[in-house]
Amino acid sequence: MQKLESIQFLRGASTFAIMLFHICALSKDYSDGVLFAPFLIVFHFCVDVFFVVSGFVMTATTYNKFDEPGASSKFAIQRLSRIYPPYWALSIILLAYYLWNPSAVNAKSGGVDVLSSFLLTPATVLPLIPVAWTLVHEVIFYTIFYFAVCFLPHRYLDRALVIWAVLVAINITISGVFPGRELST
Q: Which of 48, 50, 118, 178 makes an SS bond possible with 14, Cβ 3.0 to 4.6 Å?
């Protein structure tokens, strides 16, 4: 684990840059971006860096556990219990507000798909909590990773991850946008 300290630093730095991105976005919305607009592109890139680094850290820290009995179930329970309970608690509060005042939640992005929002599944509109689009992609990653753990022998996992990364890169190249990104800005 000590070998991952520098990459953990990169993840922390990208997290800080993502926070700065949101501050810059607010500057753009509320003061015409006079102060921070030039930095938006740089900080926006840090979302991608965060996803890649987090995926690497998660894979590296669980890689040697794949052949253990029950590894896939343990992985799924740990990951999903970390995401869903706090997310659902906040989503329930926001759902109550949405039911009281529907035009106040995600009106700019076309409304809300409540079911996909609570399940964190892909949708054509943002979740109740707009920044939760990142959690949708995290759940997709965990789902694919879960099935890789279940069905791939340990010795093939590294090759499967490389193929997956290439497919994601091809998708980004062809589409010109990180999936979900068009909804986040």
A: 50
